[in-house]
Amino acid sequence: MAPARAAGNLVPDPSFEEPMERDRWGHVFAHWSGWIYEGECEFRVSDLARTGGHSLLLVGGNQPKIRAWPRKLVLEPGRYRVVAHLRGLDIGTGRWNQTTEFMFAGVYLPLGRNGTFGWTRLTYVGEVKEPTEGTCPSFGLMAPGRLWVDDVTVEKVGDDTALTPVPVFGAEEAPIAPPGPFGAGAARCPDCGYRAMPAWGSCYACGAALAARPAASGPPVRVIASFEDGNPFDGGVVVSAHATDGAKALRIDRGYASMDGPQDWTGYDWIKVDVHTDADRPLKLYFEVRDTETRDYWTRVNYTTVVPPGSGTLAIPAALYVGEKSRPGRPLNRRGITRIVFSIGADPPAPLFLDRLRLERDTSAEAVRFEGLWAFDLGTRTSPVMEGFTPLDMSCAYTAGRGYGWKNARFWRAFDALQPDPLYQDFICVEAGGLAIDVPNGRYRVIVNMDSPSGYWGEVQRYRRRVLRVEGRELVDTMDLEAFMRRYYRSWDRDDLPAENAFDTYQLPYFAEKDCTVDVDDGQLNVEFEGANWACCVSAVIVFPAERDAQGDAFLDFVRARRRFHFDNAFKRVLHSPSGVPPVPSPEERRRGYIVFARDWMEDVFDNDMPCLLYTSDAADDLLCVDLGGRRIIKKKNKQTKKFRFGNRNFTRQKRNEQS
Questions:
Q1: For the CA atoms of the chain, what is the radius of gyration?
Q2: What is the mean pLDDT of the chain?
Q3: Per DSSP, what are the bridge partners of residue 291?
Q4: Do 562 and 387 contact (CB within 8 A), yes or no?
Q5: d(Cα 560, Cα 537) in Å, to the nearest integer?
Q6: How many alpha carbons fall within 13 Å on the CB side of residue 234?
Q7: Closest CA to 311 of 339, 340, 350
Q8: pLDDT on residue 446
Q9: 217: exposed, middle or buried (Cβ count in 10 Å: 0-12, 13-18, 19+)
Q10: What is the predicted pLDDT for the residue at 284?
């Protein structure tokens, strides 16, 4: 159906046919404005339109609040008829039981429409008393889910036209339903998760293309720069040293090297570069990325890491946020990269060598997934997703078309704690209800993690009681003071050892996943939760047939290995370089079995540190101790006396002539 603008329609682009590049406020249409007030939400250009080629899509995740309205539309005093067509998919209930809304001439009108519904006509007659921009109609979403808007009309009517106290909805034009039966080869929409046949071309539920995902196109490794044919960076020097791809590499002596120009990182998971430094300690590295939406410091990626001494490969996840780790903003627009920067600061301990800067796709999960496996990574709409997992946020309500989702769930909120790994760093706090999954009848193994990784600033999970209920089987946890101390102070009386792996020592025991086997006899597996606030911080749910236990264990081993990889990549493990030199013990020290030496009380003493005594004295009272970078230098003092007067009192001071 072709769009048509009525002769008296005052709305510019009423059918949303003039999309634009997303601007800094998230707007995606040239003649439509709006505001993202809070929570997880965004404006999108949708190809699922009532008429024409596009419509406006409002997407809500965790506690959203978003509104859209025509840009710079000022209405003169009088009465107006507003007509719009709305469509909803899996719209839930937000804070204060809000769902969808409509505003006109300063009048706020909750619509109360949620759930799933096809294109439905909305009609409202209102009155403008003062000519301001706030008189134009706006459409809002205050709950998880998706709301489409199309074919908006605003026309002036006579003063004798009756006002409508609330918007009036017409009949649903057609329900949201698949265009045909599901057959062999049915797949899932990469955006909303609904089942669909690839031959349909696009998802009937959300309109997303069903063609191969961008991640499946292009070479698995795409080289950005290898420095064999010159230097695409502004900064650094191409040299014939420490090259890994040919004979040349880029050396950065100090400061930074930047590369400007459009790039598309869509479909790739990692930015990798081979690195080398002769520094005797970890070299601090700052990695900056700008995209088409970058305007300042907080709208670009500011990623900090370290390069350990020697040679290696630096791996940076492509799913980056703008801003800083402690204050993340929107996800990086990987389709619109404009600038990358490597910086080692003004006074680095040694140069940095770079070679074979590249993009890589991670396909490791494909080898361990199997038929009957369900693996959900719960979290916010924008948090990273572990390889091999399906993202699950608060907007994913259960429907038969999707075959899984939230059922009778009550959420407290969703979090991304930013660490320790993509699977466990983000979670949803579920207070009641839970997850429903359509499965064939049979026996299933269910693994759930609902332990919090703790907050970025050190917040810890606390609760009195919580319940995980799987097909009616209850697993109950309680936490009193003793349990709290046992969980969070379990390592208070032990020291770290160099041979220990931090992930194995601290991360693995921090999460006590629930693992149980249950029988399903009604075609649906139900995983439910009970607990207030932080009690059930659900980050992962894994389900597979019990008869495929060996394949399931292989997948769990893969997940554990990937978590360890992500942790080690984010937190570089560099052992302490020993200070001092091996001493020559005296006979008494040999008999005793140890040598006593000192460090400044502000410095740590590591297991491999040794004393460095450049000069010793027979009398301890005659020692002046100086600490230089962990090396204890002892100097002998020659004492002299000097008299001086301060105020009305006389003092005698020893003057020391120091000799190494």
A1: 32
A2: 87
A3: 337
A4: yes
A5: 19
A6: 7
A7: 350
A8: 98
A9: exposed
A10: 95
Whether pLDDT at 258 is above 80: yes
Give me the domains of the chain, ranges plus CATH numbers.
32-172 (2.60.120.260), 187-211 (no CATH), 221-360 (2.60.120.260), 365-570 (2.60.120.430), 587-659 (no CATH)
> In whole angstroms, what is the distance from residue 617 CA to residue 635 CA?
8
pTM of the model: 0.78
Calpha distance 635→517 (Å, rounded): 70
What SS3 state is found at 299?
helix
CA distance 638 to 622: 8
State the average pLDDT over residues 425-429: 95
Report strand pairing: 270-277 vs 352-360.
antiparallel
Express each pLDDT in 380-389 by its tens digit. Answer: 988 889 999 9
Q: Are 403 and 195 in contact (CB under 8 A)?
A: yes
Contact in structure between 54 and 113 (CB atoms under 8 Å): no
| pLDDT per position as a tens digit, 291-343 | 998 999 999 999 999 999 999 999 999 989 999 988 888 889 999 999 999 99
**DSSP state letters, 208-229:** -B-SPPGGGSS-SEEEEE-SSS
Q: How confident is the model at residue 217 (pLDDT cuts 50, 70, 90)?
A: low
Q: Which residues of 542-557 are buried (b: 16+ CB within 10 A; e: fewer)?
A: bbbbeebeebbeebbe
Question: Tens digit of pLDDT for each residue in 398-423?
Answer: 988 899 999 999 999 899 998 899 99
Q: How many CB atoms lie within 10 A of CB 238?
A: 16
Question: How many Å apart are CA 148 and CA 332, to the nearest integer?
Answer: 25
Distance CA 51, CA 381 (A): 29
Q: Which long-range contacts (CB under 8 A, 24 or more apart) does 326-332 make?
A: 326/418, 326/456, 327/298, 328/416, 328/418, 329/298, 329/299, 330/293, 330/299, 330/382, 331/382, 332/289, 332/291, 332/301
DSSP element (H, E) containing 482: helix 481-488
3-state SS, residue 581:
coil
Contacts of 601 (CB under 8 A, 6+ apart): none
Q: Which of 563, 511, 539 is nearest to 392 (CA)?
A: 539
pLDDT single digits (tens) 111-120: 999 899 999 9
What is the phi-psi region of residue 223: left when phi exceeds 0, alpha when psi lies from -120 to 50, beta otherwise? beta
